[in-house]
Design a protein that fits this description.
about 130 residues, Immunoglobulin-like, single chain, three-stranded antiparallel beta sheet
């Protein structure tokens, strides 16, 4: 009986195991890791000037050797106007400094930071927070 159970277990184990056939050929269909990042900004922030520094830290693996693109969009909550910012930056490092500029005095603004894979633009993540120049 023990031999029968052993053979049955061995047969099941062999039939359920995967075999390595030496690759997929043609480069395969490897997908990039999903973009995940954090910022050092709180949900609500105040600034003593019309600029506000933000650090964006990529916490996932770098998506490709092409790196990432980081952009910031600032919307004035009072009139829904888009406030001009510095150009987006391309980076191949995990920690990146962003300087928000042109913040209007006494207006709350909604900031959206977007990190996108340069090689695969559909692979992106966003973080949103509020800031006001007091």
């Amino acid at each position: 009986m023990k031999k029968l159970l052993y053979l049955l277990s061995l047969t099941i184990a062999i039939s359920c195991s995967k075999s390595d056939s030496g690759g997929n050929g043609g480069g395969g269909n490897a997908q990039e890791p999903a973009i995940v990042f954090t910022t050092d900004a709180n949900a609500t922030n105040t600034s003593l000037s019309n600029s506000f520094p933000v650090v964006a830290t990529l916490t996932s693996a770098m998506p490709s050797s092409s790196g990432i693109n980081i952009s910031a969009t600032v919307i004035d909550q009072t009139n829904n106007a888009t406030i001009a910012q510095n150009a987006a930056i391309n980076s191949s490092t995990a920690i990146n400094n962003i300087q928000l500029i042109n913040l209007p005095r006494q207006h709350w603004c909604t900031v959206t930071v977007k990190v996108t894979s340069i090689a695969t633009p559909s692979n992106f993540a966003t973080r949103t927070f509020n800031v006001a120049y007091k």
